[in-house]
Design goal:
mainly alpha; Arc Repressor Mutant, subunit A; globular
Length: 143
């Protein structure tokens, strides 16, 4: 097998493993909200009061879709909307205290899932997991 085939195979295996892990984390961490809502919570937290347009762009959805998602989340008390004081045509979105608690709960449940899995590893495999985390962090660094 040549290097290109090996690299391609490794890349495909890595993609599948990361995708499966993400799905498992998502499935074990949500409690009463959808994966889309969880993603929007995290994006709002990261962007710190984005406009609806910024949020739609970050979530890679059309503005009418984000408007519908935001309305639903606001009705659950997870977020609040306000008019931008500098551009009254724009609406900004912020997490409420309930939304922050929900986001923190999701993160905590994901971490706890991984902690349980890591606790079951041998010392050797735990060390390999630490090396893997370092590798993944390096892989994600900007070029």
């Amino acid at each position: 097998m040549n290097d290109t085939a090996t690299t391609t195979d490794t890349a495909a295996r890595l993609r599948r493993a990361v995708t499966r892990l993400h799905r498992r984390l998502r499935a074990t961490s949500l409690s009463g909200i959808t994966p889309t809502q969880a993603s929007v919570l995290a994006t709002i937290n990261k962007l710190d009061a984005p406009t609806l347009g910024d949020l739609a762009t970050a979530e890679q959805v059309q503005p009418p879709s984000i408007t519908k998602i935001v309305r639903g989340m606001a009705s659950l008390g997870l977020i609040e909307t306000t008019r931008d004081p500098h551009d009254r045509r724009s609406t900004r979105v912020r997490l409420t205290a309930k939304g922050r608690r929900e986001l923190e709960g999701i993160r905590q449940r994901r971490t706890e899932f991984l902690e349980r899995r890591l606790a079951a590893l041998s010392a050797r495999d735990h060390a390999r997991a630490e090396e893997m985390v370092t590798f993944l962090e390096a892989l994600l660094e900007e070029e």
